[in-house]
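Intended use. Records such as the Beta-ketoacyl-[acyl-carrier-protein] synthase III entry shown here are meant for training and evaluating sequence-to-structure methods. They are not intended to support clinical decisions.
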Amino acid sequence: MSAARAGTHAVVAGLGSYLPPRIVTNDDLAAHLDTSDEWIRSRTGIATRRWVERGVSTSDLAVEAGMLAMKAADDDMVDAVVLATTTPDRLCPATAPEVAARLGLTGRAAFDVSAVCAGFLYGVAVSAGLVASGAATRVLLIGAETYSTILDPADRTTRAIFGDGAAALVLRAGRADEPGAIGRCVLGSDGEHSELINIPAGGSRQRSSGVPAAPAEHYFQMRGGDVYRHAVERMTAAALESLELAGWEPGDVDRFVPHQANARIAAAVAERLGIEPARVLGNIAEVGNTAAASVPLLLTESAADGRLEPGHRVLVAAFGGGLAWGATTLVWPHVTALPSR
Ligand code: UT7
């Protein structure tokens, strides 16, 4: 089918997700760090997270999720692979071409999107743009992370929060008025605060300094309290803008899908928006914060277990390092979702 006949709007056609099997409990962390199950649960809402075994990298998770999404969409002919990740296999080249090759998609467009926890929403906007421009009629958009590989073994805070996982969507060319059509995307950034979440070493800034990096500088660092305040403000504002673009009131939202940064952040944003808790989806208790994989993982699991139903008006919002944030809306379609767990 040609792009013109199919339409030029990105529409959700199938979802899949993959979690590495190893479950890490709060007590597992407390065995090595000065923390407790009580602190982690009450401050973050997290009870367990998945971490990869040694030797498993982001591409491995991305391939599994991508395969399931294509199976769900009954479509192995995607013509672009977009991978949102903070934890690429290597600094260079991008991880997406290797993922595409392992999915049998050699020759197709493939690139990474780097926007930390907002990466999936940036990926949605970029994928919709590929479809609108005619560069692609079917895009495989994957969010995949192995945060366990970048966490400082001595940092009790980040180790408590972040988990590994991957999830993917097939977006096909369709019409703006059909269920599953991605609404207008709201995106924003504030690089004035780039230091709030960062890995100091490994990039050109540290390398060109001529000063060897200290071991801890190779790990992910986060100023949690400051990030928390920005997250609530920015996600709320982006969500409100997205609702306005869709012509929806907060009361019209059947399901709010916030990035799973911290259960308290999601609850605070929902409260500010005026969305009742029963309409707010979450899975942070089981998987922690999986950054770019967080939103598609929650969408996949919720579509599979019935928390998301066809016809639901869905609001999605995310926020993360950069700082970067985004939001969008869609009406949930009749679609297959295949979570691995
Ligand atoms: O994904 C997008 C980007 N990330 C986020 O959006 C995360 C945003 N931030 C947060 O979720 C929260 O700020 C945290 C969960 C990181 C921290 O929670 P908090 O309620 O803001 O705690 P805090 O940083 O204000 O720290 C309170 C206390 C401190 O001790 P003192 O200074 O009061 O004695 C911390 O040292 O809690 C201590 N603490 C811990 N204690 C036990 C920090 N981490 C831990 C821990 N176990 N794991």
